[in-house]
């Protein structure tokens, strides 16, 4: 008998979670204005809202926490992290920040001006928010296959080179501060970018003299997909693949709460001394001194270890296998999901799941609320609410795909928990024809509204 696959870790500590009743959940979600962000954590049974900062740290990471150097300047923990960043990514200049959006804030304060355009592959919500806050424009150049969940493409995070070239030809160089490549591409379903595409994007960018920046929250998962799916990389280690990936970048932003496997932290790294000197001013203003930024010494130590662990094949196989364990159950039940399955989450296509709910009534949010009511599972909408309003017309932007994202924290839940998630969605799918209405907006913020929006149920 062939031995089954098992995780490459064992559990040392457990945390109790409360299994609520449907009546309790109906009351809680109503009090939360049908916004899952407003729920308290103890009102959630299985929390798949995000994989950001919600994973479990290893014994090596906790040991590193105990030796953190909290010196205000010149912390040894900073140099531990700086050395790890140099080893993995090849960048000489590092600025620690408290999380990924802080790295964007610091870098974009240097590079992005009013009237600029920033092409990329389905910019993440905070990335687009920081661009549009500066009265610039994010232009999505993702391949068309990314927006059709029924089409197979091994690298749906790829940038369409023709779309990108059209942008580079249509605007003067001075108006394009950078090209952003998100690895993996969260907004298109946790989809990877191929090494060949990274190489070609860099070659095209160099032709026009435009720098390339990687949004690196899930860089290790991207490297795993390259190893598994791209010809010529099966025999290369994850660390070797990461080194080549970042040879095609001029800088990187990173929320370390994902593939850094820490609960808080981020970084901004680059090759350019000029960028570093300019960004340092903003980092001191917004985050803290250069050798701690927005992080404590103990967190920098844990991150240095986490970056090492996240780029080991055994860890990545266990992590991504659990995501695919959920996705494959849903596929077998006929539930429409983004395929091929991505790295950090399963993306359920809400409009095909709930065809009777009008898109004006926020169909992905409707599905997210229904799953919470059914099973106590908290996911998140990646659809019209997240797409926000057009900054000029102030009308809703309706994306081509409306997703319920089920993001799985690293080393946190067992497959028994995953079975509950699958059962809850399958139950909903079997009675999907009974769900015909969603929500209207009662109040919303002018930017990144999905975090704080208040909704009213349409009966």
TrEMBL record:
Keywords for this protein: Lyase, Pyridoxal phosphate
MF term (GO), any: carbon-carbon lyase activity
Gene3D superfamilies listed in its UniProt record: Aspartate Aminotransferase, domain 1, Type I PLP-dependent aspartate aminotransferase-like (Major domain)
Family: Belongs to the beta-eliminating lyase family.
Cofactor annotation: pyridoxal 5'-phosphate
One Gene Ontology term from the biological process aspect of the record: aromatic amino acid metabolic process
Protein name in UniProt: Tyrosine phenol-lyase
Signal among keywords: no
Coiled-coil segments: none
Residues annotated as domain Aromatic amino acid beta-eliminating lyase/threonine aldolase: 47-423
Organism encoding this protein: Mangrovibacterium marinum
PTM-bearing positions, type N6-(pyridoxal phosphate)lysine: 258
NCBIfam families named among the record's database cross-references: PRK13238.1
Keyword Lyase: yes
């Amino acid at each position: 008998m062939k031995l089954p696959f098992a995780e490459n870790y064992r559990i040392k500590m457990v945390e109790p979670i409360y299994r609520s009743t449907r009546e309790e959940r109906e009351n809680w979600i109503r009090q939360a204005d049908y916004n899952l962000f407003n729920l308290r954590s103890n009102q959630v049974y299985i929390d798949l809202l995000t994989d950001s900062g919600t994973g479990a740290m290893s014994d090596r990471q906790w040991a590193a926490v105990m030796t953190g150097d909290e010196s205000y300047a010149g912390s040894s923990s900073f140099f531990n992290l700086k050395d790890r960043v140099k080893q993995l990514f090849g960048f000489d200049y590092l600025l620690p920040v408290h999380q990924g959006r802080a790295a964007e804030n610091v870098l974009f304060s240097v590079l992005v001006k009013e009237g600029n355009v920033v092409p990329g592959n389905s910019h993440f919500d905070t990335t687009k928010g920081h661009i549009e806050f500066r009265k610039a424009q994010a232009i999505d150049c993702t391949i068309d296959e990314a927006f059709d969940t029924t089409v197979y493409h091994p690298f749906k995070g790829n940038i369409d080179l023709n779309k990108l070239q059209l942008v580079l030809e249509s605007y003067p160089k001075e108006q394009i501060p950078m090209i952003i490549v998100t690895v993996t591409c969260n907004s298109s379903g946790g989809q990877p970018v191929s090494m060949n595409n990274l190489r070609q994007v860099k070659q095209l960018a160099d032709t026009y003299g435009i720098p390339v920046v990687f949004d690196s929250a899930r860089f290790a998962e991207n490297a795993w997909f390259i190893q598994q799916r791209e010809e010529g990389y099966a025999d290369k280690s994850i660390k070797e693949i990461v080194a080549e990936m970042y040879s095609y970048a001029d800088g990187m932003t990173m929320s370390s709460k994902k593939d850094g496997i820490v609960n808080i932290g981020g970084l901004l790294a680059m090759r350019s001394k000029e960028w570093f000197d300019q960004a340092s001013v903003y980092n001191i203003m917004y985050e803290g001194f250069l050798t701690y930024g927005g992080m404590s010494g103990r967190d920098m130590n844990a991150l240095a270890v986490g970056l090492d662990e996240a780029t080991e094949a055994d860890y990545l196989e266990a992590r991504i296998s659990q995501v695919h364990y959920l996705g494959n159950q849903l596929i077998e039940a006929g539930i429409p999901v983004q395929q091929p399955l991505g790295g950090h989450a399963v993306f359920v296509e809400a409009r095909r799941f709930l065809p009777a709910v009008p898109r004006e009534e926020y169909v992905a949010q409707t599905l997210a609320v229904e799953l919470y009511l059914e099973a106590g599972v908290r996911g998140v909408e990646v659809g019209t609410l997240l797409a926000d309003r057009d900054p000029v017309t102030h009308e809703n932007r309706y994306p081509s795909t409306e997703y319920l994202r089920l993001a799985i924290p690293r080393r946190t839940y067992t497959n028994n928990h995953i079975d509950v998630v699958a059962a809850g969605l399958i139950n909903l799918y079997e009675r999907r024809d009974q769900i015909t209405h969603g929500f209207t907006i009662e109040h919303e913020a002018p930017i990144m509204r999905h975090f704080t929006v208040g909704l009213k149920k349409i009966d």
